[in-house]
Design brief:
By secondary structure, this protein is of the alpha/beta class. The protein has a single domain, classed as 3-Layer(aba) Sandwich (Rossmann fold). The chain is built from nine helices and eight strands. It has helices spanning 15-26, 33-42, 50-60, 67-83, 97-101, 109-117, 131-139, 176-199, 213-226, and strands spanning 4-9, 29-30, 88-91, 122-128, 141-144, 150-152, 168-170, 204-208. The strands form two sheets. Strands 2-3-1-4-8 form a five-stranded parallel β-sheet, with helices on both faces. It has a three-stranded antiparallel β-sheet with strand order 6-5-7. Strand 5 (141-144) and strand 6 (150-152) form a beta hairpin. Helix 7 crosses helix 8. The chain is globular, with a radius of gyration of 18 Å. Bound molecules: zinc ion.
């Protein structure tokens, strides 16, 4: 049976890396909501779609897109992937209670995925790291300027992306004072989502995110396989 994996964790907890590993090693589809929305609003095939062009204007001016529209677009894509039998991994999303659980008029992503994949095939992880680790990792993290691959800084680092050889850059999101703010935002935003998932009877797997990514990955796989 196809699986859905949702990985939460503060910035620098390694959730993106674990999602990347599930994609690279296990063939999961890494569902990046922001990237998908950008594709939809920029797709030339949607040039004459008024609603989408309206959202494109919001996107281009950095304004939040209409939440109910986003929910619909995300579910449409998730539905296509489910029909194709793809395993999905989300890292850090759904980001809001509305995206996750919807409201009286809109079905949330969790309910949608429950129907498409079955609740026993949905797995939730939270990667835990200390604030110190989080800040260190974020302030030392580089990303490829072309393909976006994350590269952890180390002393003898190569100056170029190991995948496509583009120059690496530091993300502006990763400056220390911005990281502290993002840590607080993460707690405020994520805690209510996790507690609602627990209320719905989902098990949340808390994993130590401090070890090297390949060690964390072993623990992720162990949890995924133990419930088959
Ligand atoms: Zn690259």
């Amino acid at each position: 049976m196809a699986k859905v994996v949702m990985i939460y964790g503060q910035p620098g907890s390694g959730k993106g890396t674990q999602a990347y590993l599930l994609e690279a090693v296990r063939g999961f589809f890494h569902f990046d909501t922001g990237m998908h929305l950008e594709q939809v609003v920029r797709d030339p095939a949607n040039k004459n779609n008024k609603k989408i062009q309206h959202e494109r204007k919001l996107f281009d001016s950095g304004i939040l897109l209409t939440p109910s529209w986003v929910l619909g677009i995300v579910q449409k894509k998730a539905g296509e992937l489910a029909a194709a039998g793809s395993d999905l991994v989300f890292s850090g999303s759904p980001r809001t209670l509305f995206e996750a659980f919807g409201d009286s008029k809109n079905q949330g992503l969790i309910a949608f995925l429950k129907k498409a994949y079955g609740r026993k095939n949905m797995h939730f992880f939270v990667l835990r790291v200390s604030e110190k680790t989080s800040i260190w990792r974020n302030s030392h993290r580089l990303v490829c300027s072309t393909c976006g691959a994350p590269v952890l800084y180390h002393k003898n680092r190569t100056q170029h992306c190991p995948f496509c050889a583009s120059p690496l850059r530091q993300r502006s999101l990763d400056k220390p004072d911005i990281i502290r703010k993002r840590l607080r935002e993460y707690e405020e935003r994520t805690a209510p989502i996790l507690s609602k998932l627990k209320n719905q009877g989902f098990k949340i797997n808390y994993l130590n995110g401090e070890p090297a990514p390949y060690k964390v990955f072993k623990n992720v796989l162990k949890k995924l396989e133990s419930r088959n």
